[in-house]
Specification:
168 residues; alpha+beta; Heat Shock Protein 90; five-stranded mixed sheet
Length: 168
């Protein structure tokens, strides 16, 4: 439904209210940790991570990024989720180690038309909508998403959400 809404131009349905991204991400990390014992999960929080967001949609952002880190990271590797609250925004990061995303592909991974899930050896043959939906949800909250990926530092997705979105 999210994909259809975003593609039809009607926009994703967002219901703004008070939310705590630190609590949301902590709960999701605990849920993933309880089911996926092979991975090592770390969770760090600093500052005030509360804002005016759609709590369920922000949880979906976090959940999709953690799932993506598990899927594309080193099998049994470490996944680090961090929430950092600032004066006007909160930054959520999800980091994993694995094969780096080539620089030339780092922006196109958020676009549905450029997903390469049909490639040989890819264990996940679904449509690969996770990062596309993340980008759409971040945009609906007037935020930004960025990825950095290198052999030495791993892959780090950063989401910046304004504590009070301009439109709501």
């Amino acid at each position: 439904m999210d994909f259809t809404e975003s593609r039809l131009g009607t926009g994703l349905k967002i219901s703004f209210g008070n939310a705590d991204l630190a609590a949301i991400s902590r709960q999701l990390v605990e849920e993933f940790r309880s089911v996926h014992h092979a991975h090592r999960f770390k969770h760090y929080v600093s500052g005030d991570c509360t804002g005016t967001w759609d709590r369920l949609r922000v949880a979906q952002i976090c959940q999709n990024l953690i799932s993506n880190a598990m899927q594309h990271g080193v099998a049994g590797g470490e996944i680090v989720v961090t929430c950092e609250g600032g004066d006007g925004n909160v930054i959520l990061t999800v980091k994993n180690d694995g094969t780096p995303i080539p620089v030339a592909h780092q922006q196109e991974i958020f676009e549905i038309s450029n997903r390469k899930h049909h490639m040989q050896g890819n264990p996940n043959r679904n449509l690969g909508l996770g990062l596309y939906i993340v980008k759409e949800l971040v945009t609906a909250h007037n935020g930004r998403i960025h990825v950095e990926s290198t052999e030495s530092a791993g892959t780090l997705f950063s989401v910046m959400l304004p504590k009070v979105p301009a439109k709501h």
